Amino acid sequence: MLSIFGSRTKLICLLLLALLMTIAGCQISAQKTQHLEGKGCKDIGILLPATAAESGRWEEKDRHFLEKGIIEKIPDVTIRYFNANSNKELQEKQADLALKGGSCILIVTRVENEQGINIIKKAKKKGVPVIAYDRLIKHDDLSFYISFDSQEVGRLQADYVIQELNKGQEGIYKLEGIPNLVMINGGIDDENSHAIQESWFKRLNSYFQPEEFNQNKRLNLIFPRGKDDPQYFMPDWSGKKAAQKVNELLKNHQDNIQIILVANDSMANEIIGSLGDKRGKILITGQDGSAQSRKNIKNGFQGITIYKSSELLAKKTVELVVTLSEGKNTEDLINWDIEISKEKEIPSVILRPISVTKENIEVLD
Fold it and tell me: What is the per-residue burial (b if ≥16 Cβ within 10 Å, else e) of 15-50?
């Protein structure tokens, strides 16, 4: 019996060892495949999302730095550039054109996640890696994601509100009593919006619900009605709709609003432009470090913007594209793994944004 049991044990051990070696072999094979995807590629597709409210960003900055960097680093490269002008169906057709034309690496800032997934599926069939640029595409077959830390963006914006609140009468906005606060967020289908939302409520919840923290209430959140209220997400980060909503709220509350947490500069710019003689009397935040936000901060119309360097974002993306094109290992470039499902984490490059106020406005020069 002992002899038979020992034989069975050895057999089981050998089978387990073989299984582990097979699994390890699959993992190594998968890693090598990922690194080799795009090897030798000299045809790069770039699909950016909009030319309207954020045209100064996508067209003048991201496109410029991406194309310039790729041309400098990959000799004889072909770049197929497309801008979807906020049209999700158009962007998918543009991806079809890029793939049909021979693009073997795609850089995609998707308009909507659904079309982004379709683009990934089509690219996968051709063995083409997709880099999600600044907007996550939630699909297991996404190759890479590169962006700034949007939770940090929201935290820096909320911290500025707390800072000015603590200054009271000595601060720029002379906040006193229990100021009324409004939140204006980006598109509801954008993961960046939800990351910003998470930080806003995490940092400010104790100011809204003091009974849980044994302190006096310090902020009155009049819009949205709560974290799950979809109304404060502006479709396509629309500045026009953001301004309309703010003016509606001002009218309903007899101009009694002291703070507007705004997720980005394009919406903040539209809101500020619609305020008339109330400009400079309401604390307003933003994000992106746009040229107009720089003027607004210098004029006292906007308190803070969160600067995310398009040049740095493009530079890191170019490094990734070049590494893929050369067939080299990308692990040294990756600093984060973004979990998008129970089965999958996406290798990512996550960069840190910078808080900019009048005190360090030269950062935007």
Answer: eeeeeeeeeeeeeeeeeeebbebbeebebbbbbbbb
